[in-house]
Amino acid sequence: ARRPTACAAAMQTAMDDFADGCEAQGLPRLTIRVGIHQGEAVVGNFGSAQRFDYTCIGPMVNAAARIESQCPPGAVMVSQAIREQLPDLNATDHGLFTLKGIPNARRLYTVVPSGGKETAPV
After folding, report:
1. Which of 20, 23, 59, 103 stands 20 to 30 A from 43 (CA)?
2. Phi–psi pair at 49, nearest 5 degrees
3. Which tens digit of pLDDT belongs to each residue from 46-88?
4. What does the alpha-carbon distance between residue 117 and residue 122 come to, in Å, rounded to a whole number?
């Protein structure tokens, strides 16, 4: 749980730096958003001899994608399962969210960057 959350925070920092450079050149500011969940998934090459992709599939992957869809641009949101594994994580509870295709509402948390201010959910 700690490694993907730290990776997501580093990705946001790198994207902010990149976006600053884009803006300085008169280009649009790009943002990313990240949703993190955990569980078992099937990972590998899927497809046929003509075309295949390395990917992961499973309900936990779908849950992470749905969490990401609730996340505001420029932020990182984690599931309650991740939050429980990281009791020292600086994160704000944003309540229960109904995620498309997933039974029961899920509690989601926005990670507050170190030394930064969280982005409020939309």
Report:
1. 103
2. -65, -30
3. 988 899 899 999 999 999 999 999 999 999 999 999 999 999 9
4. 15
